[in-house]
Amino acid sequence: MIMIRTKGIVALVSIGVLVGPMATPTPAASAAVETEYSVLAAEGVTTSAAVRAIERARGRVVSDNPAVGLYRVVASDGFADRAALADELVGASPRTPIGWAPTRRLITSPGFMSARPGTGTSKPDVTGPRLDPLDARLWGLTMVRADLARAVTMGDRRVSVGIIDTGVDASNPDIRPSFDWQRSRNFASDIVEIDGPCEVAGCLDPVGTDDSGHGTHVAGIVGAAADGSGLSGVAPGVSIVELKAGQDSAYFFLEPVVDALTYAAQAGIDVVNMSFYLDPWLYNCASNPADSSQRQAEQRVVITAMNRALRYAHRNGVTLLASLGNQHTDLGRPGVDTRSPDYPAGGAYERQIDNATCWSLPVEGPHVIGVGAVGPSKAKPDYANYGGEQISVTAPGGWLDDPTATGGHGSYGNLVLSTFPEKVLREVGLLEPDGTVKPQASELVLRYCTQGGDCGYAAYQAGTSMAAPYAAGVAALIVSRYGHPDPRLPGTITMDPDHVERILTRSAAERSCPQPRLVSYPQGPEFDALCVGGRQFNGFYGHGIVDAFAALSAG
User: Fold this and answer.
1) Diameter of the chain measured on Cα atoms
2) Which of 16, 160, 342, 402 to pair with 59, CA 20 to 30 A apart?
C-alpha cells in the first residue's frame, strides 16, 4: 500500500487524466450529543457484569461480541473517563471519527506517473496446467511456483480463505466461481464523514461489492479462477469468503475487524488474510508519554481486544496472515511515528515508539504470520517494512523501480496484476462509457472477456498488501493437501494453524541478505535498510520466499 496512506496497501494510479477532486462531505456539527464507543470487558468478566458496569457509566449497549468481551456502546461526553473507573472494564475507545477526514478512495500512487508506456507486457516463462491468458504477466505466480503446484492440487473448494478487507467484487468473472455467498459477511457500515453518502438504506453495503478495490485485488491473488480467461490466483480451487471490515475510504477500525476475526473462527474459515493496519494508530502503545491518559486507555483497549480476537481465531483453527506494512521501517526499531492518529485530518503528532510497549496491529499480534514483500528481482522494495522480530516469510509485492526486473526500471510489469472492480474504475474515470479502458490507462488497467461475453478488469498495484495474499494462497493449498474433514462443520476441511505455519516456513525458498547488507535507495538515507541474519532466517526475507510446489511436496 504505498497509496495515499502508506498502509500495506499500494493503490492504482489515475495517471493524470482523470478526475477532479471528489465531492467533499460537509463536516459534522460539533455539537453532537452522543458518541459510539468500543468498550472492552476485563478478563473473566461476565456479559451481565460488563453490561451493568457500562450502564453505571451512563452508556447504552447497542451490540456485543461475547467471544472477546467487546461491546458497542452509545454514550454522552465523559463516558470514557467514567468507564475507566470501572474494575469490570478495560476501557472505552471512540468508535467513530470526531470531525471530518477526506475520503481516501482514490486510486493514486507516487511514482506511477514516471512508468514508461509499453513496458507492462513482459512474459516470463510460464509452465504448468490450467493457466489463463493474463498469467503470462504474473511473475509472482511463477516465483512462488504456484503454476507447478497445480500438478498436485489447485486447491479444494472445501477450504476457505477469508479476505478481511474493503469487500470483494463478486461480479468479476474471475472471482464469481470461487465466491462463497453463504458465508460472506459485511461488518463495516459506511461512515458518511469518511466514506461519503451511503449508497444503500442502512449504510451496510451488500455482500459481493467493493467500493475501494483493495479487497478485490487481494482476493484475486489468492483465488482467481483458472478458467481459460483473464488471470488465475495462487489457489484457484479454494473458496473466497468476503469478511468486509474496512471502510470504503480504506480505514480499518477495531470493532469490525474483531467481529470479522471471531466470525471467521465460528464459521470454520481456514485462512484469513489481513492486508492493513488498525486505525487510527500506526502503532498502539500501552503508555506512551506523548499520549494523553485517555488516548493511552484507548490504545490499551485496541491491544487487548485484538490480541483476544487473534488468539480466539487461532484456537479455532484459523491460520492468520498479515502484511508487514509499507513504511520502509525495521519494525524492531520503529523510531518516531508521525502518522498517528490518522483522523481527524491534521490530528497526527510526533511520538517516539518504544518497541517493547507498542505494537503495529494486526501483524505484531499473537499467532500472526508476518509477510514481507519482494520485487520481481527478489530484492526488498524501497517501501517494504522488514525486521527479524516480525517477519516470517516474504512473497511477491511488486516494485515499480526494481532495477533488474521484468521490463526494467519503471515498468508496470514490475507490479502485481490482479482483479479490480469495474465500479471503482468508472468512478475515477479510467473507463469509457462502453467499458473499454481509456488510452491513457491502457498499460495500467486491462479488460478481458469470457467466450460468453462476460467481461472483467484487472489492474496493477504494489505493496506488502499484495505479498500477504500470495502467502495466504499457499497456506490454503497446504490445508487442501494435508487437512482433514472438520467434524464441527460438515463439508469443510480444517488443519492446525501451527502445522500450516511450519510447512509454510520450512518449505520457503531461503534467501541470503544482499551484499553489502546495508541497502540504500534513491529516495534518501531515511530509506536505508540493514539486513540482519543468515540465509536460513533474516530480516529481509524471514524464512524465505513462499514456495507452493515445495510446500505441497513437504509432507
Assistant:
1) 67
2) 342
